[in-house]
Amino acid sequence: MNPKGSIDLKSKPQCMIHASFVYTAEKVVQKKGRLLRESDLVPLKDGAVVYDSRRVIWVGPTSKIPKKYFKIKVLDLENRRAIMPGLVDSHTHLVFAGSRSNEFASRCAGASYAEIASSGGGIQSTVRATRDASFEELLEGAIRRVKVAHAFGVRTLECKSGYGLQHDAELKCLRVVQSLKQQFPYMTFVSTYLGAHDVPRERSKKSYFDEMIHRTLPVIRKQNLAENVDVFIDDGYYSLGEGKKVLTAGKKLKFKLKVHADELTNTEASALGVKMGALSVDHLLKISRKGIQALANSRTVATLLPGTAFSLKVDFAPARALLDSGAQVALATDFNPGSCYSLNLPFMMHLGALYMKMNAAEVFAATTLNAATALGLKNKGAVLPGYDSDFVVLPYAQFEEMIYRLAW
Ligand code: NIG
Ligand code: FE
């Protein structure tokens, strides 16, 4: 995959010509990423894109480039490479220290995720390592991971905190994300405060709750360290009522909302997310009919994380029921050290197509326009005039090859 960062981007317009296909996503945009048929991809054959460092300026057949763009710097893709919008990974737990490879071995030997968590492993083990790590160590790890994601075509990454579970440690993780924004100016980062990922073992839930709501959230708002607030509503983590309190506090401070919903058990957290106007509800492995109905015509994106179901060896989310109900569906990696240690978003497309019966247009929208919507970003997900110019040039002629490849 040709990293856009390797092209010397000047603010003057530049031009790529003879793309085998340009996946402009015009029809996907028209249909707002919902109820898509395979034929809605409608790529432009032998296409050209004129762009500057920020925006796409013109898109059309190579034979029809307007005269005024004739003289600008040109890259010829020789009808062998396609152009598509940069991928958006809208759900990752990118910032953490330590490794849980020992847990993976236990899971291979038959232990469940819940058993590991209740014996002191799971999120808590990453919390210990993350608290012990310096800002520099965390940043170094995060930079390595971003480079991996970039190589898969990802140009926008959501990054959650949630392995600090304590005021200073949570802020340290969010500052790492802030620093990524400076390190990778040609990428977009959206940061999410997930203080309510678990409860710290050394104190009561009540005192941690007070800290999150009365201390940490106001500082994050003041220092502009996150755009979103997320909460893990599930058995053994936060109840529906507790989740609602965290989200309400976030909303009051003008954060956008996201919810880890109906993952391990059904708690009707998806319906709560919709009711509260969340940008997205994520996971949905155990979503009910009621939850699906709530999402169907709502503006809340249903974000599915098939790598997690795959890695935990549990059933995939009911993608078809969601898609057919008219819900706007996104796919993301859920990259984290416990339940999905993968940054490979194209692999999630592969799983979506193979195990969740998503068609190519649905998979495309799920990792571009719909994922951007799940982050509240309006100028991403299409290669059309006015959209961000963070498109990717594929090392093959058709987008479908990206879904077809198994983890490479
Ligand atoms: O999204 N569901 C909660 N959090 C992560 C897993 C975190 C971990 O195991 O470290 C998830 O799957
Ligand atoms: Fe997650």
Overview of this protein structure:
This protein has 408 residues and is α/β, with parallel strands linked by helices. The chain has 2 domains: 14-85 and 384-404, Urease, subunit C, domain 1 (Roll); 87-373, Metal-dependent hydrolases (TIM Barrel, Alpha-Beta Barrel). It contains 16 helices and 14 strands. Strands 6-7-8-9-10-11-12-13 form an 8-stranded parallel sheet. A 4-stranded mixed sheet has the order 3-2-1-4, with no helix packed on it. Strands 5-14 form a two-stranded antiparallel sheet. Helix 5 (135-151) packs across helix 6 (167-183), helix 6 (167-183) packs parallel to helix 7 (205-223) and helix 9 runs parallel beside helix 10 (289-296). The chain is globular. The structure holds N-(iminomethyl)-L-glutamic acid (NIG) and fe (iii) ion. Fe (iii) ion binds next to loops.
Structural class: alpha/beta
Major sheet: order of its strands? 6-7-8-9-10-11-12-13
The CATH architecture designation of the largest domain is Alpha-Beta Barrel
Major pleated sheet: 8 strands, parallel
End-to-end Cα distance, whole Å, is 11 Å
Number of strands: 14
User: Which whole number gives the mean pLDDT?
Assistant: 96
The distinct ligands, each listed once, are: N-(iminomethyl)-L-glutamic acid, fe (iii) ion
Shape: globular
Helix and strand run: EHEEEEEHHHHEHEHEHEHEHEHHEHHHEH
In quaternary terms, these chains amount to single chain
Count of distinct structural domains: 2
CATH class of the largest domain: Alpha Beta
Predict the CATH topology of the largest domain: TIM Barrel
Low-pLDDT segments, ≥5 res:
1-9
Please give the share of residues in helix.
25-40%
